[in-house]
Structures are given as structure tokens and as C-alpha cells.
Amino acid sequence: MFYRLKKKQLHNLINDSVSASRDYGKEVCGLIVDTGYFLELIQVKNRIKRGGSFAFYVDEINRIERAASTLGYEIVGTFHSHPYYIAKPGESDLAAAEDNELMLIIDSLNKEAMLWKVKNKSAKKVKFQLI
Fold first, then answer.
1. What are phi and psi of 16, to 5 degrees?
2. How far apart, in Å, are the Cα atoms of 12 and each of 36, 40, 90, 97?
3. 111 contacts: CB under 8 Å, gap ≥ 6
4. pTM above the 0.70 mark?
5. 82: which strand partners?
6. Averaged in consecutive runs of 10 residues, what is the pLDDT profile of the chain (131 residues)?
7. Of 106, 116, 57, which Cα lies nearest the Cα of 85?
8. Cystine design at 105: which of 49, 87, 90, 121 (Cβ 3.0–4.6 Å)?
9. Gap between the Cα atoms of 107 and 125, Å rounded
């Protein structure tokens, strides 16, 4: 499967992750929504105030799920940044992931992002095209 991401949206998200990492290693996070044409990256508030971790606010996620469903879109994964690590899922990322979930990881140091497909608590890198 080949995925499409909006170039400007990913660029802005990488910039946000770099800024957050400068604030004691904080992370950005959000949901990946499949519109049927491209993957929309919906940034949400990080519930964790210390650096090096992220968690979602349940109410915020529920609102996004309802909106996506109303539009006929599907939430297919999550994204988050790594302030001091490569753009590859770590053990805790994989432990929390659901099977067949997409996971976009942003490396704040190198200003790059990689997309992964999670299956059986392991991740396989998948390609994406910027549009």
C-alpha cells in the first residue's frame, strides 16, 4: 500500500516537534485519519507535561472520532515525535500500538519522519508520497 501525506502539513508538524523538543524534550502527538485520498494528520494536546512521553485526552480523541465518522473517514493510526531518538518506534510505542495501526514517528533532531505499519508488536516501514 502506498500512502499520501500533505507536504505542508508534515513540514509544519516537524517544525512543531522541533519547537516542543526544545522545551525539555516534550513531544507532539496526534491521530492519522484516512480521507480516502490522503492521510490527514490531526495534532492533539499532549496530556503529559514532562518530556519524553505522550498521552491523549480521551474527550479530544472521542470528538475527532465522531467527526471522522460523520465525514466517512477512518482513524488508521497515531503519530508522535521523538525529541532525542530516531524516527523508529520504540518498545513502549509498539507495546501500546494496535495491530494494523499506522504509526508516524518524527525525529525532532534530524527533522525527518517515517511511517510504520504495526503488526504483532513489530513495525515495518512503509512508503509515503508527499503531495
1. -60, -40
2. 22, 13, 23, 25
3. 14, 18
4. yes
5. 107
6. 94 97 96 97 96 95 98 98 95 94 97 97 96 97
7. 106
8. 87
9. 14
